[in-house]
Amino acid sequence: MSPKAPNLKSVQKLFKPKKKKRPSHKIGLPPGSLVFTGDKKQEEVFINLITYDENEFYEENIKLDQLDTHLKLQKKVIWIDIIGLHDVELLEKIGNHFGIHKLTLEDILSVDQRPKMELFEDYIFSTLKMIQCPSPESPIVDEQVSFVLRENVLLTFQEKKGDVFQFVRDRLQDPKRAIRQRGSDYLLYALLDAVIDNYFIVMENVGERIENLESQAMIDPDTDTLNSLYLQRREMMDLRRSVYPLREVIGSFGKYAEHKISPEVRPFIRDLYENTIQVIETMEVFRDMSSGVLDLYMNSLSNRMNNVMKVLTIISTIFIPLSFVAGVYGMNFDNMPELHWKYGYFFVIGGMGLAVIGMLFFFRWKKWL
Amino acid sequence: MSPKAPNLKSVQKLFKPKKKKRPSHKIGLPPGSLVFTGDKKQEEVFINLITYDENEFYEENIKLDQLDTHLKLQKKVIWIDIIGLHDVELLEKIGNHFGIHKLTLEDILSVDQRPKMELFEDYIFSTLKMIQCPSPESPIVDEQVSFVLRENVLLTFQEKKGDVFQFVRDRLQDPKRAIRQRGSDYLLYALLDAVIDNYFIVMENVGERIENLESQAMIDPDTDTLNSLYLQRREMMDLRRSVYPLREVIGSFGKYAEHKISPEVRPFIRDLYENTIQVIETMEVFRDMSSGVLDLYMNSLSNRMNNVMKVLTIISTIFIPLSFVAGVYGMNFDNMPELHWKYGYFFVIGGMGLAVIGMLFFFRWKKWL
Amino acid sequence: MSPKAPNLKSVQKLFKPKKKKRPSHKIGLPPGSLVFTGDKKQEEVFINLITYDENEFYEENIKLDQLDTHLKLQKKVIWIDIIGLHDVELLEKIGNHFGIHKLTLEDILSVDQRPKMELFEDYIFSTLKMIQCPSPESPIVDEQVSFVLRENVLLTFQEKKGDVFQFVRDRLQDPKRAIRQRGSDYLLYALLDAVIDNYFIVMENVGERIENLESQAMIDPDTDTLNSLYLQRREMMDLRRSVYPLREVIGSFGKYAEHKISPEVRPFIRDLYENTIQVIETMEVFRDMSSGVLDLYMNSLSNRMNNVMKVLTIISTIFIPLSFVAGVYGMNFDNMPELHWKYGYFFVIGGMGLAVIGMLFFFRWKKWL
Amino acid sequence: MSPKAPNLKSVQKLFKPKKKKRPSHKIGLPPGSLVFTGDKKQEEVFINLITYDENEFYEENIKLDQLDTHLKLQKKVIWIDIIGLHDVELLEKIGNHFGIHKLTLEDILSVDQRPKMELFEDYIFSTLKMIQCPSPESPIVDEQVSFVLRENVLLTFQEKKGDVFQFVRDRLQDPKRAIRQRGSDYLLYALLDAVIDNYFIVMENVGERIENLESQAMIDPDTDTLNSLYLQRREMMDLRRSVYPLREVIGSFGKYAEHKISPEVRPFIRDLYENTIQVIETMEVFRDMSSGVLDLYMNSLSNRMNNVMKVLTIISTIFIPLSFVAGVYGMNFDNMPELHWKYGYFFVIGGMGLAVIGMLFFFRWKKWL
Amino acid sequence: MSPKAPNLKSVQKLFKPKKKKRPSHKIGLPPGSLVFTGDKKQEEVFINLITYDENEFYEENIKLDQLDTHLKLQKKVIWIDIIGLHDVELLEKIGNHFGIHKLTLEDILSVDQRPKMELFEDYIFSTLKMIQCPSPESPIVDEQVSFVLRENVLLTFQEKKGDVFQFVRDRLQDPKRAIRQRGSDYLLYALLDAVIDNYFIVMENVGERIENLESQAMIDPDTDTLNSLYLQRREMMDLRRSVYPLREVIGSFGKYAEHKISPEVRPFIRDLYENTIQVIETMEVFRDMSSGVLDLYMNSLSNRMNNVMKVLTIISTIFIPLSFVAGVYGMNFDNMPELHWKYGYFFVIGGMGLAVIGMLFFFRWKKWL
């Protein structure tokens, strides 16, 4: 009956706390300073190397000094997947090796970077969020993933193991797949496509959460519903910050495609762009749905209040007048003739009964019952 | 009197549940994978072929292998209408036959595709939603329909039997009609026009539904009203996702018209574009109306609450003071002179009567009665 | 006291019901089908012909077959005003006579056409709504009026008798007026100007209605206020659909003016454009005012509720404790010393009086009284 | 206690009634008709003439026929300030004298003209609102002021005496001022700058009013607060209609500057443009603040309601159960043993006291007290 | 229990009062008048001079007349930092020395200038707000800082001592830093970057404040919460006025970079631009969060109200009927058989007990308890 402190614990399990935008310890450093702004999520940094052409496929976890040997093999495509960003020195070496601009390295390390795609003289750089939410009950986990495409070499940078690229790796192993025929630009496309595809699963799960909140708001709203809804909306604000810039990112990709990407890959980028639009529009629909749920909740609440008020009114309206009558005949005046009638009491009780019946009809007529 | 669980059943008959955006089982497949993402709505796939020129008209349900024979006849226009999308292999064959890009075929099969129109080297591709809602009481049924226009051949792909093209077919059979004089581009226009025309009927019925909700909210609002309104708004969100991209779709059509469409068809496309704008503006009006209905409903509700409160207040204000007076004369003090007056009781009763009359005038003056 | 069913009758006299967007009976017809989509508002179709140059002015109601005779006279300007659209055949003949495109004729006949201006090879076509609302108490009546300007001939198409062009006709009869010096393009401008000018009167009256609602919402709000407000907003939605496209319409007029309109008329078109902007901005102001009135109304309502609650609270707070005291001394315990005090009763009554006075001061201090 | 009719009188002193947009008596007149649409605000029309160059400065109130004499003097700059617009004939003569287009004259006379700047062949025309609001307590007074710049002659048209140009006139009298070195274009700039500068004072005062409303809404909200707020918002709607077009007006000025304005004046126009943007942004902030004040007010109101309800609940919760107990021992059953206990009465009274104390602690714990 | 006057004092410590937009004492002055519009924040004006190239670094507080000596040394970069703006004469001398336009000087002195960047013939001028908010509990302090970049000289103008440039100064002292290799354009970039970087700290602290308000609104909302929220929103309005124009400012910087900035500095400007976007997007998120907090607060409040109402209803519903029964048996009719039953009293008391238990179950079933 008390205004319950909302059960925040149970809700927070689902919605992870929002991360700080940009850590203060970076302030004051010159631009291009390489500082990893995220949390160290694993001990070691892995370098996973995949090289392939139509005929061969080779995958190995290598050390940095082995890199040269592999680059000399001159395969059609070389994909170097760096997993773990906390070893800044290693990243700097890789950056030097491939002629990556200091600012690009800084972007790779700043894990709260806004998604973007930039064209440098020698390479295309892109960074975006890889979001995972395997079920409606699990929290949304995001991770920054960066891409550097330089001729036949594609570098990817992830924060930790576990990604959405497994399907692409599987396809690469099958020599009959079209991907084996194509170049590093198609590989970049395929990985971006895997990231965006995964957004659809996240959207599905977020959608299911909103629908759950919706039924809750319709059938059985309580304080937690609104708090959940509020946290849901904050989660979606975060999500929007990952999703909305994608339009621009993939749009730029399409633009650069004119110069840097082989013509046969271009229709795929257009397709990717449309998927992105679809993700963004779904976000918009979710936004509208959320505010609809809020209306529903408010209505349920005020409806309940209404019902409580009606009960109070009905009880008061019936019994207060009756109590008055009882009070009247409880008065101690010497001369109250009714008190001495033989059936006075029964008349009064009967009259009261009739009044109750009358009022019940009245309430029924008013549709209060 | 209890906060009724809203009667969802009755509402859901009208508003069909929203479909998933993109089925998870497509995730991980390479781009261009041909997977039908909808529900199989009929057993067989029909291929309906219509060929015509000024002089002749021919219609038949054919098998795939009969196609070549008909294509050789070199009629002015060949319309191949594929009804049913679940036979992916068949579609692949047709795609190969007419040189349709894998991504186009994927779009045809992904029945939650965003409406679009694309210009490929050899053909124009368009996909949009064919929406049907024959009466205000019937649910909105949508179906994806795709068009591929390649020279004198127009391919259309529908999910199931039953479409809005019957009027066009009827006109085609009449040799005096202008449509028989014109090419496949005019046929594409005519079919798009039929689809858009049908949106007007849907709009009419949606409008009627909103007007019903409106009268309900004004005259006799209950919990269901808001839930219906909420579902109505969700339905309109879905509808908007089908309708809004049309501006762009038909706009692109107009743009491509410069190159690919014969000059005499262009004014018709402009006309079609204006119809589309009209549909979109109607959607906007509906959106405003919906939020107006919400205001009305909320007002009705708070008005009722107000009335309930007034009843409570009137009853309490009249009887609580009277009860107090009765209570006073029910006290058992030895020395209460009034009790022994001969007409004490009648004075008190009379006084109470006057007080009631006074208060009724007061309430009347306050306009509470 | 009951939640009154709002007095819809009285409100609906002012706000006419919204017309259907596009009649279903047109669906399925080929584009360019000539079907009059409005209501037949008069029996006959009138063709009013006015010809004039600097020296002569001639006006007559003619029959279609007399038209040629008049056209041969080669006056500087010929204005043919067709009043009544239901005689489709007649319109078709006129269309053929002046080389009007089928789609243009269709637009003329579809009386729910969105306002537009189109440049055809031989003529300029424009259609818009002529709105009349002579007083704040009268409903808004709209009528579609279409213009076809072809060289020195201006065709106008109206649904029924009674228009806003009378002032222009009067000016035409006066040979000293500038309009007699100028061509058919200036006549078109003058008629459009008359239509837009009339919007200002409508705006004035709509503004007055909103101001009435406003005083009502401030001084004496009831359920009807909100319903009226709601209907007012719907009326404005309708109005906006007539008004907003005008920006584009007159804007196009300005654009076409570069080629088709004589240079001396151009500044007038710019002036007309600015008037249109002014009408649109007034609509925007009305929109804001409407939502302001809603806030006012809601505030008045909740203020009233507040006052009702205060009355209830004051009455209860005063009498419930007093009744309790009376109840205490109505108890029948054998040993209640106060009952036997000589002035017990008077002490209690006096104490109650003091308590009432104290509470009244308390409420005054709280500003509840 | 009654729902007070808001004290409109006191509020209306501050907020002047909104003027009609466009007087109906102009409807039906041909374009370019010269009708003064404002109220005649003074008897006479004054023509104030100022001529100056680096060396000389001359100011005089002249008659129209003296104009030629002064124009012949061929000073560097001639500023003719016409104060009072109701003498249409005089204005027409001036118009003819300087070759001003009929439509320009019409704009000068229509005192509800939307602010604008237009480039004619021979002159630049601009009209805007000169707004004055010397203190937060005084109403906002606006007046239309028009400018015609034609070579070295600047004509200004005001509705009545009293303007914001006095500072400019003072500077003109000082031969050392830069303004004496510069041409008529700089004079136009200086006057426009004076008008815009004055907007800042108005903004300051409007800002102070909003802040007053804000403290009122926080500390001591009553019905008048909302009505004032509502009127404040309407005032700002009016103000916006004067202010928003300024961006376009001064923007056009900058554009025309390329051709018609001497290069040294151009940076000043850019500066003026930025001031205009600042005024517009301040309006936007005020808009947000207004809606914030509304929230504050609504909160204060519902907070009060809450407190009223709490009082009612506390009183009822304490006394209703106690009254029940008293009622029980007021029953007249023959066999009620407690009544005959010696200290029954005192036990009951004591028990009641304890209950009250308990409930007070309960309420304290609930933070209701 | 009374509607507490909100504790404004405690809140105002955190949120400083908004400054006036533009001081009225500037009105009437000619454009380019040099008047310092801020508050004098320190006694003296300091001129801090830093000169450096790859090899040497020199810093000194100088007097104006020493300036020439230093300028003659022809170091690679000269940074003159003027701290304190109230000595208008001094500023005018500096302005003359470096050929700064009067309007630029006016902008430097008008401390409520909108952030901007302008390209003059000889120099780039920029002005923006340097905002400091070292902790979530401290108020936001802003200060206008202006930059004039003219060849190898960078002038900065601050209102008072204490800035965010210390990190840059430290880096300048280290000869190995890249900044010592680069020109004055890089120095300008580095200072702008320091300003923008500091916005991130402010954002972090504002974010924390909003989150505090959020927990307060969820857990323990009172009147102060809304007032704080309201002041928070006003603070953010102010902040937005500093932050939003930055997009344009840094955008212009990027545009001018094409001509005036050395190519190696350009990628840094792009990076700076993206940081600016991120700040702006964070502001947007905060805006959404604020309105979310408002919803939460309103919900908490109405939830409390609901609970209060429930208590009232439960107490009334239980005791009013019971009191009625007690009242009935307190009536003084001669013939009331129940009164004379031996266990009548106990039956009645027992019946009342059962009724209470029944009602408690009823409330439990209704989930009111």
Automatic annotation (TrEMBL), chains A, B, C, D, E:
Keyword set includes RNA-binding: no
GO cellular component: plasma membrane
The keyword Ligase is annotated on this UniProt entry: no
GO molecular function, one term: magnesium ion binding
Pfam family of the protein (one): CorA
Residue ranges, compositional bias (Basic residues): 15-25
Span list, region Disordered: 1-28
Annotated InterPro entries: CorA_cytoplasmic_dom (IPR045861), CorA_TM1_TM2 (IPR045863), Mg/Co-transport_prot_CorA (IPR004488), MgTranspt_CorA/ZnTranspt_ZntB (IPR002523)
Subcellular location, record wording: Cell membrane; Membrane
Principal subcellular localisation of the protein: membrane
Membrane topology: Multi-pass membrane protein
Keywords per UniProt: Cell membrane, Ion transport, Magnesium, Membrane, Transmembrane, Transmembrane helix, Transport
Transmembrane segment boundaries: 311-331, 343-363
Chain's role: Mediates influx of magnesium ions.
Family according to the record: Belongs to the CorA metal ion transporter (MIT) (TC 1.A.35) family.
Name under which the protein is recorded: Magnesium transport protein CorA
Source organism per UniProt: Algoriphagus halophilus
